[in-house]
Amino acid sequence: MSSVERLLHRMSTTEVAALPKERGVIVQPIGAVEQHGPHLPVMTDAYVAERITAGAVGLLPDEAPVWILPTLHYGKSTEHLGRAGTIALSTRTLLSVCEDVGRSVASSGFRRLVFVNGHGGNPSTLDTVARDIRVETGLMVFPVTTGRLGIPDDLDVPDAGFSIHGGHVETSLMLALDPTAVRMDRAVEGGRALAQLYADKAHLSLEGVVPSAWVTDDVSANGVIGDPTGATEEFGLRVVAAYQSRLAEALLEIVGFEFPGMMSP
After folding, report:
1. Are 226 and 168 in contact, with CB atoms under 8 Å apart?
2. Which of 9, 109, 127, 189 would you call most buried, defined as having the most Cβ atoms within 10 angstroms of its Cβ?
3. Closest CA to 1 of 70, 52, 56, 61
């Protein structure tokens, strides 16, 4: 079954009603529309989430009861506000949108919802709303962020010490997914000062155990936090394949997953 055949919004209400619900999984891709420096499109995070989801679902066996919702393109991008092209939802708005999606999925009879997220500013909100949806609707909810799926161990990330936005990995991903959308002639490094900012700190970090609330203007003049100049399509293809295969494996684990308290004695 192709990923297109698994698009829930292409089905009629009668067809959706007939889908197997007990073990079924609904996948909601979510990303952002926000600045990604001078070389990447503002759609980057939403596009990555959509393509990784489609590729992963396309790897599933035909009998796997997994269906995809339309991508939520807007996310919590307040850290990039003030830079052209950024369209940000507030935390409250994003929470409400996701809660409404959860209620709707539950009212259609499904029991499992997966958020596949491509934006680094969304995870904390998705973690929070996942539990709220669980409590309110009984749905089992699984928030997944593509960047946490991990890259192959044999790949070296040259800007690993300061790369979180528009750097080597993200630019390589877009070169693999849609090279026509990438302007490598405009790719420039940004945010390298992060490598030194916390160098003498025992506990503080940008997003570690003791994180620092930050906005882009705190750490980058050009909107890039990383070094995209050495990004390649080949690197990106390896990462895309890893993300898609690992997400596919996770979706198969989610199918039919039950907590012990929900199972028969």
Report:
1. yes
2. 189
3. 61
Query: Where do the domains of the chain lie, and which CATH numbers do they carry?
Result: 4-259 (3.40.50.10310)
Write the DSSP symbol of residue 71.
Answer: P
Q: Is 182 helix (H, G, I), strand (E, B) or coil?
A: coil
- Dihedral angle of Cα 106, 92, 48, 230, to the nearest 10 degrees: -160
Whether 176 contacts 47, CB under 8 Å: no
Q: Residue 117: is it exposed, middle or buried by C-beta count within 10 angstroms (0-12/13-18/19+)?
A: buried
pLDDT digits (tens, 9 = 90+) for 169-200: 999 999 999 999 999 999 999 999 888 899 89
Residue indicated by tokens 């039950």: 258
DSSP state for residue 253 in the 8-state scheme: H
Task: Kindly list the strands in the beta sheet with 66-68, ordered across the sheet, starting from the edge strand earlier in the chain.
Answer: 66-68, 25-30, 112-117, 140-145
Instruction: Give the DSSP H/E element, type plus range, for residue 254.
Output: helix 233-254
Residues in the chain: 265
pLDDT for position 64? 97
pTM of the predicted model as reported, rounded to 2 decimal places: 0.95
In degrees rounded to 5, what are phi and psi of residue 103? -60, -40
